[in-house]
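Holo model, 4'-deoxy-4'-aminopyridoxal-5'-phosphate. Inputs:
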Amino acid sequence: MPTSAELHERRVAAVPRGVSQATAIYAQRAKNAEIWSEDGKRYIDFGAGIAVVNTGHQHPRIVAAVEQQMKLFSHVCFQVTPYESYVRLAERLNAIAPVAAPAKTMLLSTGAEAVENAVKVARAYTGRPGIISFSGGFHGRTHMGMALTGKVVPYKKGFGPFPADIYNVAFPNTYHGVSGEQSLAAINALFKYSADPSSIAAIIIEPVQGEGGFYIAPFDFLRALRELCDEHGILLIADEIQTGFARTGKMFALEHVGIKADVVTMAKGLAGGFPLSAITGRADVMDAASPGGLGGTYAGNPVACAAAHAVLDAIDEEGLCERANAIGRITLDRCNQIKDRSNLNCVGDVRGLGAMCAIELVKDTASAEPAPQLTQTLMKVANENWLILLSCGTYGNVIRFLVPLTASDAIVREGMDIFETSLAEAVTRAA
Ligand code: PMP
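Output:
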């Protein structure tokens, strides 16, 4: 059996460095919130494959649905010989997505592809070119995804030129001194100085920024954004790729806010680990593209559709929105206790919505200067202590907790114990 160290050496030789990796742990098998490595070690997984396995690894319901579909067919292409499971999934997403009825849905494979297609339908519907996105936002690694993404290193540097008519404004990040009012003022200033609102097709926003650092957009700001869009005939695209499917304690984060988007992008948690994404939007917007303008060979793969149906059933029948809230409470309570441990003096902020929780690490609480080095050390120490953690944030100083929503309280507590011990150890090492 090769060790993780041996596999890592082979990886470095065979795979480009641009494909980064958060750990040097090579997965051999996984179950619910645990992963066993090639060298036989057991880890608690607080990353969920980057917010994908909200339903846990190898959920029995998903495994059964996938096995059953595999026996029937694994690919025929929906644009050639369609299948009922795609249509039924569209119907289910139309019924639950935070979009004004009547809605329509198309399926794709990746999050970036969902974003690309949201922009396509928005431009086709409005006949306008412009798209506004936010600083710190992340929308994928395709050219449009990169253009919309509000972080240069590592996502954009060296990869331009990007598509034109993309405008980036400050995200309302209250911890870092940007209020909702300031963010709205930035959009209005953009309308004055750079682009007339009549040239803007859509504003795209993550209700809670994912890669950007788990910053929660103030709900009043999102409501004001909805009004601003209505005033100018601009479409609102909610990127719920990371926030969707029970992660925030509701099926979609916009449900906390009480507004509807014109188009919602979804991926990650949708199919419990199978590559499937979707955009659900107002039927008139979704129908703006002409036949043949949308689609893809693998888009809406039938095995992934089978998994997605099982995911939706599991979220509903196992009460995973409620579980997200319970897991979030355990995580945030513990993070707040750690924040209050005066000897650590490195926790700048603790925040979360449902089980989308984060702790922001700083050099000291007085200066609130970001501590990316400490964050890196903490991730390494956590791995040594058998816990998988993910970081995020513009400054790389945020630990995000993405616990599978099927995890037991006992596993969450065990993971948080390891987290606390590891943080104390990382602080000592960094000193
Ligand atoms: N949008 C958001 C909000 C995301 O979090 C991500 C992935 N981290 C994407 C888009 C891109 O998804 P994918 O990696 O599947 O292309």
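The chain has two domains: 4-58+319-430, 73-317. The chain has 14 helices and 15 strands.
Archived with the compound record.
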